[in-house]
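Problem 12. The chain below contains 183 residues. Write out its predicted structure in token notation.
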Amino acid sequence: MNPSEIKDVLTFSLTQVPIDTRISSVSDAGIRDASGRLDERSKRIIEQLQEDGRRSYAAIARAVGLSEAATRQRVQRLLEEGVIQIAAVTDAEAVGFHRQAMIGICVDGDLRSVSTKLAALPEADYVVICAGRFDLLVELICEDDAALLSVIDDSIRAIPEVRSTEVFVYLRLEKETYQWGTR
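Solution.
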């Protein structure tokens, strides 16, 4: 068989296998398509990790049609680019944080500088610049009411650009999920 015939046989053989079941061992850990969006395999990897952050590379590889090495490289690239984080999500109360609250904040001046200051607070686990009644929303996780009061009075209200705050104390966390998929 000459090289041209071998190429034709290989091309024919590969095109007969459905694309979803082909396993790629390409070492390129590219995670984006030509337009810069996450490619479908990267999205499928993310969905696998959202279901179970401890899932093995081998199991993820089987599910998405990549080799284990290629999967490991893609996960590393997703981590390096800040697309994903892999962390243990805890029950705040079970680890000693008995008070959670969302703080609505109105700001005079530069929102970004205030949000940067708030993001540096160890008690703040969520800081967002938003539109609407408040300029910023900050979620605080504290040991107790005294600690919450201290953060609000000593740290948040002490920022000169903070005009007003409104505190929404959590009575019960009804739903918290990190499995919204990749759409």
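Discussion. Residues 3-80 form one domain. Students who got a different answer should revisit the alignment rule from Section 12.3.
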